C-alpha cells in the first residue's frame, strides 16, 4: 500500500493543525532527503557530519514533461491492455463497484520496455531520471497537490459518496484526509489506479534508471545495485500479483481520496523508496559473498514471515476448511470471529509487520553501514508499523473487549517474540 497512507480518523493525525503540518512537512522530508544525501555527499553515521546540498535545478519543463508522460503512458497501458473485472466489497450504501485489474501486465510491459530500450538496445538513456531526480520530484509534488485540490473540488459535486473521516467540515482536514470515497472518471477508479499503478511501477522504473546510470558510469552494475533492484522489483510484483487484495484494505474501503493517499502513492513511494538505488549510483558498493548471503537470507526470512502470516490469516478467515487453516489453533470470541493463537500468529500479535520490516532492512543493508540516510526507509517504516500496531491493538480492544485480554495472555508479544 501507499507509503504515507494508512488512514483512520483525521484526529489521529492531529486535526487541522496536524493536516497542515503533514501537507507542508511530507514534501519537506523529500527535499531534506535529497539535501542530506545526493551526489557524492551523504550524512555519515560517524562522525555525525550532515552535508546540505541543493540541486542545480529545482524545476524544469523537461522534468514536468517526463513525469506527466510516465503517468499518461501507465494510464494508457491500464486502459488499453486487457484486464479482469473484480467486484469491490459491499459499500455502506449497499452498492458494489467494479474494478478493472491488470497491474501486473502493465508492470511487465512498462518495465520490460524500459529495460529493453536501455540495457538491451542502448536506444534510450533512462539514466536521465537519475540525473534529473530533483526536477521529477518537484513535478511529482506539484502534481500530487493539484490532484488533491481537484479531488477536493470534485467531492462537492452532487451525488458524491463521502468518506466518514474526510467530512469534518474543516477544509484543510478534509483536503488532507480525502473527502470523496471512490472518485471516478467514467469507469476509471482514480484511487485504486493511483494506489497501485504510476507510483509503485514508477518506483521500480526509477530504480532501473539508477542501475542504468551506474552502468553507463562504471561500465558494470554492482551486486549491491542488482540486489536492491531485484528485491524491490519483486516486492512490487508481489503487491501487484495480489491486486484484488487491495479492495479490502482500509485505504480503499474507508479512507477518502485526498492529499494523504495522493501524495503517498504518487510521490512518497517513488521518491523516498528509491533512495537506496539513488545512493548506490554515487556510492557504488561491491558486497562480499558472505555479506551478500546474509542480506539475501534476511530478505527471504522476512518474506517467509510476511507471506506466511498474511496467508494464514487470509485462508483461516476466508476458507476455514482448507488444510492450511485447519492445522491452526484458535480461540473463540463473543464477537463471533475466531483469533489464531498458533503458528506465526502465536509468536507475536503483529508478526506480519515484523516480516515486512525485515524485508525493508534487507533493502537498506546493500548500501553498507557508513551512511545513515539510506536507512531512512527502515527507520521510517519501524515508526509507521509501531504506531499502526498500537492503533490496531486499541481498535481490537474495542472490538473484542475482555476476549482481547485473553488473547493477549495467549500471545503476549506485539512485534518481536520474547522482546516487545
Ligand atoms: P493486519 O493484516 O495485521 O490486520 C489486523 C486485523 O486482523 C485485526 O484488526 C483483526 O481484525 C485481525 N486479527 C488480528 N489478530 C488476529 C489473529 N490472531 N487471528 C485472526 N485475525 C486477527 O493489519 P494490516 O492491514 O495493517 O497489515 C497487513 C499487511 O500489510 C502487513 O503485513 C503489513 O506489514 C502490510 N502493510 C504495509 C504497509 C506499507 O506501507 N508497506 C502499510 C501497512 C501495512 P478482525 O478480527 O476484525 O478481522
Key traits:
mainly alpha, disordered N terminus, globular, two-stranded antiparallel ribbon, binds NADPH dihydro-nicotinamide-adenine-dinucleotide phosphate, 60% helix
In short:
The chain has 420 residues and is mostly helical. It is 60% helix and 5% strand.
Shape by Cα distribution:
globular
Distinct bound molecules? NADPH dihydro-nicotinamide-adenine-dinucleotide phosphate
Name the structural class: mainly alpha
Strand order of the largest sheet: 1-2
Gap from first CA to last CA: 25 Å
Helical content stands at 55-70%
Number of helices: 18
Q: What is the strand content?
A: under 5%
Task: Give the oligomer, counting copies of the same chain as homo and different chains as hetero.
Answer: single chain
**Topology as a string of helices (H) and strands (E):** HEEHEEHHHHEEHHHHHHHHEEHHHH
Number of strands: 8
- Uncertain runs with pLDDT below 50, 5 residues or more? 1-10
The main pleated sheet reads as: 2 strands, antiparallel
Radius of gyration: 22 Å
Average pLDDT value?
92
Architecture overview:
There is one protein chain. This protein starts with 14 loop residues before the first helix and ends in a 10-residue tail after the last helix. 60% of the residues lie in helices and 5% in strands. The radius of gyration is 22 Å and the shape is globular. α1 packs across α6 and α8 (198-218) runs antiparallel to α9 (223-241). It contains 18 helices and 8 strands. The chain has 420 residues and is mostly helical. The protein has a two-stranded antiparallel sheet with strand order 1-2. Strands 3-4 form a two-stranded antiparallel ribbon. It binds NADPH dihydro-nicotinamide-adenine-dinucleotide phosphate.
Amino acid at each position: 500500500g501507499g507509503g504515507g497512507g494508512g488512514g483512520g480518523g483525521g484526529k489521529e493525525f492531529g486535526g487541522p493543525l496536524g493536516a497542515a503540518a503533514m501537507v507542508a512537512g511530507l514534501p519537506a522530508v523529500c527535499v531534506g532527503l535529497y539535501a542530506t544525501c545526493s551526489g557524492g555527499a551523504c550524512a555519515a553515521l560517524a562522525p555525525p557530519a550532515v552535508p546540505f546540498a541543493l540541486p542545480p535545478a529545482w524545476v524544469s519543463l523537461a522534468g514536468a514533461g517526463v513525469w506527466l508522460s510516465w503517468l499518461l503512458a501507465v494510464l494508457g497501458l491500464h486502459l488499453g491492455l486487457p484486464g479482469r473485472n473484480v467486484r469491490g466489497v459491499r459499500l455502506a450504501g449497499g452498492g458494489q463497484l467494479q474494478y478493472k485489474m491488470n497491474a501486473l501486465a502493465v508492470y511487465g510491459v512498462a518495465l520490460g520496455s524500459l529495460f529493453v530500450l536501455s540495457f538491451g538496445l542502448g536506444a534510450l538513456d533512462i539514466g536521465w531520471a537519475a540525473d534529473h531526480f530533483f526536477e521529477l520530484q518537484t513535478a511529482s509534488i506539484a502534481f500530487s497537490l493539484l490532484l488533491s485540490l481537484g479531488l477536493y473540488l470534485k467531492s462537492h459535486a452532487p451525488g458524491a459518496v463521502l468518506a466518514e473521516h474526510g467530512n469534518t467540515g474543516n477544509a484543510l482536514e478534509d483536503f488532507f484526509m480525502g473527502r470523496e470515497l471512490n472518485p471516478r472518471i467514467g469507469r476509471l477508479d482514480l484511487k485504486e489506479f493511483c494506489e497501485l499503478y504510476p507510483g509503485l511501477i514508477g518506483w521500480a522504473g526509477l530504480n532501473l534508471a539508477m542501475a542504468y546510470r551506474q552502468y553507463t558510469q562504471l561500465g558494470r552494475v554492482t551486486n549491491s545495485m542488482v540486489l536492491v533492484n531485484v528485491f524491490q522489483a519483486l516486492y512490487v510484483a508481489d503487491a501487484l500479483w495480489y491486486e484484488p487484495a487491495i479492495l479490502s484494505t482500509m485505504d480503499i474501503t474507508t479512507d477518502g481520496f485526498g492529499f494523504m493517499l495522493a501524495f503517498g502513492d504518487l510521490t512518497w513511494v517513488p521518491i523516498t523508496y528509491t533512495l537506496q538505488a539513488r545512493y548506490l549510483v554515487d556510492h557504488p558498493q561491491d558486497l562480499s559473498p558472505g555479506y551478500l548471503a546474509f542480506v539475501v537470507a534476511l530478505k527471504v526470512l522476512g518474506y517467509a514471515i510476511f507471506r506466511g502470516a498474511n496467508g494464514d490469516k487470509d485462508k483461516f478467515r476466508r476458507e476455514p476448511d482448507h488444510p492450511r487453516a485447519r492445522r491452526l489453533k484458535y480461540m473463540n470470541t463473543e464477537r463471533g470471529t475466531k483469533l489464531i493463537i498458533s503458528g506465526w500468529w502465536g509468536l507475536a500479535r503483529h508478526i506480519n509487520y515484523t516480516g515486512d520490516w525485515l524485508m525493508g532492512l534487507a533493502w537498506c543493508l546493500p548500501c553498507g553501514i557508513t551512511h545513515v540516510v539510506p536507512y531512512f526507509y527502515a527507520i521510517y517504516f519501524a515508526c509507521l508499523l509501531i504506531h499502526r500496531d498500537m492503533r490496531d491493538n486499541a481498535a481490537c480492544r474495542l472490538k473484542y473487549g475482555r476476549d482481547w485480554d485473553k488473547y493477549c495472555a495467549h500471545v503476549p508479544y506485539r512485534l518481536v517474540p520474547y522482546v516487545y
